[in-house]
Structure formats: C-alpha cells, structure tokens
Design brief:
166 residues, DUF935 family protein, 0% strand, 6 helices, Portal_Mu, mainly alpha
C-alpha cells in the first residue's frame, strides 16, 4: 500500500524527493526547478482554457466575432533571493550608492512606519544621546600619541647631520 501511495505521489508531483527519504541541497534545487516547470505549464494550460472557454465566448456574445481577441496571460515569477540582494546592497550602500527606501520596502513587503512609531536603528549608527554624553565620547575617542613613535622621535633628536644627501 505504501509503495502504491509513493508511486501515485510521484506521478502527481512530478518528482521523487518529497516522497523518498534522503535528499541533498543539489537535489532540492533540481526538484524546485521541476516544480516551477510544472507550475508554469499549469499556468499556461489554465490561461489557454480561460481564453478558449471564457474570454472568446464572452467577446463574441457581447461584441460579435473579432479578428483579434484579448488573451489572459498568467505570469509566474520565482521568489527573489532577498538574502543575496541584501548581501549585495549593503556594501554598495556603505560606499555611497543611493537606493530608495520605498523600493526596498516593496521588495521585502514592509510598510512605511507610522509617525511616532518605534523604529529599528542600524547597530553602527546608534541612537543619539544627550550632549554631555556625546562630548564625553568625543574626548574618549581622541587619538593618543603612539608611544613607539614618541620614543623614535626622542632618539632622533640627538643625532647630528654628518654628510650631504646624494
């Protein structure tokens, strides 16, 4: 009984991985491509059915025979790899590329935040604090002279020039 169930599943799904044990990443990619091929074929067949049995009779009944009829086309788009997009955009944005927020919000399916809503901030940017804290941080972040460079400068002060440069 299990064998028959597995064979029927393979015939319906057009692939074996969802019914068999043991699979790998490469198999998953191949089976995903097979799945997308089946989805595209189904969409094409559904569009043909709608055009032949719905659109054409409707146009003929309401407007008479036509030289050209409108056509239903079902477009199937594959899911976009948002992680790859993010990995590609972050270094470019850090280097000055300007990207519209609305375009990225649309791609990720995120809504525009409401006025006064709590929003996330970049880790590197931080949230601005009070002025005293900022001044304190500026003082702490000042560059201190390199001790080794200071020692070299002290040692070279006592040297005397003995010859001309070539």
């Amino acid at each position: 009984a299990e064998w028959c169930d597995a064979q029927i599943s393979k015939a319906v799904l057009g692939q074996t991985m969802t019914t068999d044990n043991g699979s790998s990443r490469s198999q998953a990619d191949v089976h995903n491509q097979v799945r997308m091929d089946i989805v595209r074929w189904d969409a094409r067949q559904l569009a043909n059915t709608l055009n032949e049995y719905l659109v054409r009779p409707y146009i003929e009944a309401n407007y008479g025979p036509q030289a050209h009829y409108p056509r239903v086309v079902l477009r199937i788009s594959e899911a976009e790899d948002l992680k790859a997009l993010t990995d590609a955009l972050v270094p470019l944005i850090d280097r000055g590329l300007r990207v519209q927020e609305s375009e990225l919000r649309d791609r990720f399916g995120l809504a525009e935040p409401d006025d006064g809503a709590d929003v996330l901030h970049p880790v590197s940017a931080g949230v601005p604090g009070d002025m005293a804290m900022n001044r304190e941080r500026v003082a702490l972040n000042r560059e201190h002279p390199d001790e080794l460079a200071q020692m070299v400068d002290d040692a070279l002060r006592d040297w005397q020039k003995t010859g001309e440069a070539f």
